[in-house]
Write a structure and sequence with these properties.
The chain is α/β, with parallel strands linked by helices. It has 4 domains: 11-51, no CATH class; 66-271 and 381-521, 3-Layer(aba) Sandwich (Rossmann fold), CATH 3.40.50; 275-375, no CATH class; 539-646, no CATH class. It has a 10-stranded mixed beta sheet, with helices on both faces. The protein has a 5-stranded mixed beta sheet with strand order 31-32-33-34-35, with helices on both faces. Strands 15-25-24-17 form a 4-stranded mixed beta sheet, with no helix packed on it. A hairpin with a 5-residue loop joins strand 9 and strand 10 (169-172). Helix 6 (180-198) packs parallel to helix 7 (214-225), helix 10 (417-428) crosses helix 11 (445-457) and helix 11 runs parallel beside helix 13. It starts with 10 loop residues before the first helix and ends with a strand.
């Protein structure tokens, strides 16, 4: 039986191994000779000069993405029925617990998003359709993460660190900091590398940003996602009235940078469809000249039957020439004919229109063909998100939305629901069961938007929210309302928004998922002796009694195993007694676990008879090596395809 690692993958080592498979000669003692690799790829190496984007700390940031950690996600199962506080309106709320734990497929994870992304790598590798993040804009007043694991807590705190109530690493990145841009870039780079791993091949990422780091973010994303996978910079009109803080202009908009995982697998972005009967002209002045062939009997003419000779049909800026004689009978062309002009459509598109049996209409001479839409086709999304386009909401609308839910303004600069609703809709209209991830969750607008969109189109999209538990500063409206940190606000927003949406939609939303499983980042479930049986001291002898920390329960251990085995965290699970021992079954047999201090052979045989894909037991359940060997033999006999581990 194997022991699980309970450690995130070493992505750097895995990448080196992949290079070694392709080019064995460039890897020596685990190190890659980059110059030799470049030469093997046909690149002439002349020296150090190159066009590149770099900053102080970039190499460390790149390495950070692949560095393994020993942490876990601990479930917080209690739901809103166990309310632990009340807001300023007197409405009770649960500061940490889940909602509809047994039935929901949504996740809310509290903790440092770099660590959380590392933990989710196995379970959600290539499974996320869309990522949206709203990271710190680096305005000179933002708190950003300092990802430095080499220093002690005391040294770190003394140097520049500011910690929240749970000891998470945050510091205020002011413009006087000599590494102002470098620190921000170092924070973003490893998170985006890990985020890319989680995207599906047709996945999309949206990143909100302003002028301060837009240029640097584009360069980072070009490296991480590839220049060829850049889609656009959406301009989002975030204010109804411009801000005149800038010396030269009044600013109305921020940006949303968009990349796809692989442009070859991506689909058009769309939030609306064509209207039935709407006319789209073939002519488009300014395009290159081309000749289109219209098939016999297909074009409908609103003009008398008869013959039309080849002729010049240009007029004003519109160029059109009829190249063939055509005969119109019963309002249709008897033979095919050619038109030369500056066209909106290619011949391929014209053939597609004919194949789809959509109408082409010409009303008179000179010919001006029109495509009459059948309706329902997707329309490509515009890259301007404003009240003019899509009746887009602004920051003021977002504040009003939160205030209507909570009775007080709790959050600075939240994003409006319609903004996220449109982004999610644009890339998931063809997959209503997609996973949407936001690892700078803030006030949880993304979760609100996913629930709202599911209510509108009966989708079953799932969300994963990740947020550091940043403290609500003393004296703020949030603190006055009784909220200790941002996570409390985000989770409570999901509870209230979900209830409101379900009440408004009524019977059609009975199966709407408005819950979430709450999990919290913590140190590993295992004592240090689990990883290294080396130098023990006298005061460590007691740890040998168990390799599991005493404050961890069965659910902690179960979810630790899910992460280690790379299973999703939102599947159903049950607990039952077998021969008086508690046994947990996850997703109908993907995993069966028993973490009792002792377990009988009868219980082991019953578990094996169910033939799960995976089984896990507590190491201390077996008092001797022969007992462990016996368990292995039982599974070898009754369930030979089951992977068995002990912790």
């Amino acid at each position: 039986m194997n022991k699980p690692k309970f450690e995130t993958p070493n992505l750097t080592a895995e990448n080196v191994a992949k290079i070694a498979e392709l080019f064995p000669g460039v890897v020596t003692e685990g190190k890659v000779n980059i110059d030799l690799l470049r030469s093997m790829l046909g690149d002439e190496v002349y020296g150090d000069e190159a066009y590149e984007f770099t900053w102080v700390g970039k190499r460390t940031a790149i390495a950070e993405a692949g560095r393994p950690i020993r942490k876990t996600l601990r479930p917080v199962v209690e739901d809103e029925s166990t309310a632990t506080g009340a807001d300023s309106t007197g409405k009770p709320y649960c500061s940490s617990g889940s909602k509809n734990w047994d039935t929901t497929e949504n996740l809310y994870i509290e903790g440092d998003n770099l660590d959380v992304l590392k933990l989710l790598q196995e379970s959600y590798l290539g499974r996320v359709k869309m990522i949206y993040i709203d990271p710190p804009y680096n305005t000179g007043n933002d708190f950003v993460y300092r990802d430095n694991f080499a220093q002690s807590r005391e040294d770190y705190d003394e140097e520049a660190g500011v910690y929240d109530e749970d000891g998470e690493r945050l510091f205020k990145n002011t413009e006087t900091n000599g590494r102002f841009h470098s620190d921000w870039c170092s924070m973003m780079y490893p998170r985006l590398v890990l985020a890319r791993n989680m995207l599906r091949d047709d996945g999309v990422i949206f990143i909100s940003i302003d002028d301060n780091e837009c240029h640097n973010l584009r360069k980072i994303c070009d490296e991480v996602f590839g220049v060829e996978n850049f889609v656009t910079e959406f301009a989002w009109e975030k204010k109804k009235k411009p801000s005149f803080l800038h010396k030269n202009i009044g600013k109305l908009n921020d940006y949303i940078i968009c990349y796809v995982k692989n442009t070859l697998n991506s689909h058009p972005f769309s939030v609306e469809t064509t209207t039935e009967g709407k006319k789209y002209p073939f002519n488009n002045a300014g395009n290159g000249l081309a000749t289109l062939t219209f098939p016999a009997g297909y074009v409908r003419f609103n003009m008398p039957d008869g013959k039309v000779e080849p002729q010049e049909m240009s007029e004003g800026a519109i160029i059109t020439r009829l190249l063939d004689t055509i005969m119109i009978k019963n309002g249709r062309n008897i033979d095919s004919f050619r038109l030369e002009g500056e066209w909106r459509y290619s011949q391929t598109k014209l053939d597609e229109i004919v194949k789809n049996d959509e109408e082409i209409f010409i009303s008179k001479v000179p010919f001006r063909p029109n495509h009459i839409k059948a309706g329902g086709e997707i329309k490509k999304m515009k890259n301007v998100l404003s009240p003019t386009h899509y009746q887009m909401e602004t920051n003021e609308d977002a504040t009003s939305q939160l205030t209507s839910l909570f009775g007080v303004d709790l959050f600075d600069n939240p994003k409006p629901v319609k903004l996220l609703n449109y982004l999610v809709r644009a890339v998931t209209y063809n997959d209503l069961e997609s996973i949407v991830l936001d690892f700078f969750s803030g006030s949880a607008t993304t979760a609100h938007a996913v629930m709202q969109l599911n209510a509108e189109d009966r989708g079953k999209r799932k969300f994963i929210m990740v947020q550091l538990s940043e403290v609500c500063a003393e004296g703020t409206e949030a603190a006055k309302a009784g909220y200790k940190n941002i996570c409390e606000i985000g989770k409570e927003r999901i509870r209230r928004a979900g209830d409101k949406i379900k009440a408004e939609v009524g019977l059609t939303a009975q199966n709407l998922d408005i819950g979430f499983r709450a999990l919290k980042l913590d140190d590993t479930n295992m004592n240090d002796v689990y990883y290294a049986a080396g130098d023990y001291t006298q005061d460590m002898i007691s740890l040998l009694e168990s390799n599991i920390k005493p404050d961890r329960n069965d659910m902690d251990l179960l979810f630790g195993c899910l992460l280690d085995w790379g299973l999703p965290l939102s599947m159903p699970h049950t607990s039952e007694k077998i021969d008086d021992f508690t046994v947990h079954t996850y997703n109908e047999g993907d995993l069966i676990a028993c973490f009792e201090e002792r377990i009988s052979e009868k219980a082991v045989r019953e578990i094996a008879n169910r033939k799960p894909l995976r089984a896990v037991f507590r190491d201390s359940s077996f008092t001797s090596s022969p007992e462990k060997i016996n368990v292995f033999e039982i599974f070898k006999l009754l369930a030979p395809n089951t992977a068995v581990r002990v912790i």
